[in-house]
Design goal:
It is a single chain. The protein has two helices and five strands. The protein is of the alpha+beta class and 102 residues long. The chain has one domain. The chain has a five-stranded antiparallel sheet with strand order 1-2-3-4-5, with helices on one face. Strand 1 and strand 2 form a beta hairpin. It is globular, with a radius of gyration of 16 Å.
């Protein structure tokens, strides 16, 4: 879980919903997971810390499918893609190679 307390991750999910202008609620549940529900829709997403796996730190369940996720930015990307139909995912590639000079 990379040392992030679940309560802080839950606050991050709530703030992200507000920043994306999506009506919904993120709440911590008793078993340590975070449940995100979109207001007015029947969408529920479950985010669980996976402390026993050194590679994947989170499990996100969307529409009954569980996916392992490496980081919180990855969790946020999956969350937004699931809740916001107008979201166009963009990826950035970082390279150590130098740029060609024109």
């Amino acid at each position: 879980m990379s040392g992030v307390p679940t309560e802080l991750a839950c606050e991050l999910m709530s703030a992200s919903l507000a920043a994306w202008r999506l009506a919904g609620e993120a709440r911590c549940v008793d078993d340590g997971a975070i449940v995100v529900e979109r207001t007015g829709k029947h969408e529920t997403i479950r985010i669980e810390p996976k402390a026993d796996d050194p590679m994947f730190r989170w499990l996100i369940t969307i529409d009954g499918r569980r996916r392992p996720v490496v980081s919180l930015p990855g969790v946020l990307r999956h969350l937004r893609a699931a809740l916001d139909p107008d979201y166009a995912a963009t990826r950035v590639r970082v390279s150590v190679a130098s740029l060609p000079v024109p």
